[in-house]
Amino acid sequence: MMALLHSEWERLWKRKIAWLFLIAIPCIIVATAKYYLGHNVGIPPGSPEITTAENFPVMAMIEQLIIVFNVVALILLTLSFTEEYRSGQLRMIMLRAYSSSQLFWAKWIAFALMMALFFIIYLLAAVLAGYLLFKSAPQQILFYYDHAVPNGDMILYTLRYYGMAYASIVGMASVFIGIGVISRSSTAAIGLGMGFLLCSLGFPLVFEMSNRVLGLNLPGMLKYLSLSEIQFSGIAVMMSNADALKGVHAGIWMICVIAGYTAVFMTASRLIFTKSDRWI
């Protein structure tokens, strides 16, 4: 199994998109920093939107998580699952002494490890850029916090934020794998994946408008059935210490949503991927 995992790891690194994203990380960080430097000019002091050396890694992740990381995950998984199957490459691997289930998990673990590496490199680059390009502050004003936090606590907050951002990518990737194993072509897989992402982005707006206009009085936390909404604002809500949010148990709800997506789509994807007639 370790040999198969090593093989899948190498196959992922043979993809140009993996190297392009790795090389592009410094450029993405610099472009994001340039945006926030301009954004700081019009933001009043004491606002959580002010970007400092200490909170830039979190702000940089907020800006790029939904589009950049989701799209990279979609493309990598499409190339790993859909393209390799449709091109016949997986049949060559299946001639070895490995089951389709082992192949499925090796591909998933290799992808998860690669995304974890991207997150670590992105975090390190963001920390470096933050201290080079932004002013330091003795305390940090965070979204959905009732008080400022010291820089020591900001370190823990940043690590937790990146951990939850990674978990959200795992949930989103589970959906992309499900799409990938049923798609007839890479184009279809990417198109359906982007369609799901757009629907996920649009769901909170539709939900809130329907709830208000139709007077449904549904709990506002239901908008976080959208994985992209969890990525956009949910992680900050989840880690909030504001008294107004303590009673809604946002963290438990969103962790359950991510776990639900992951469990359902990974189980279905594995069953489809390992069907015996798939390899005939």
TrEMBL record:
TM ranges: 17-37, 57-82, 103-134, 161-182, 189-207, 250-273
Keywords, ordered alphabetically: Membrane, Transmembrane, Transmembrane helix
Pfam family, one: ABC2_membrane_4
Top-level lineage group: Bacteria
Name of the protein in question: ABC transporter permease subunit
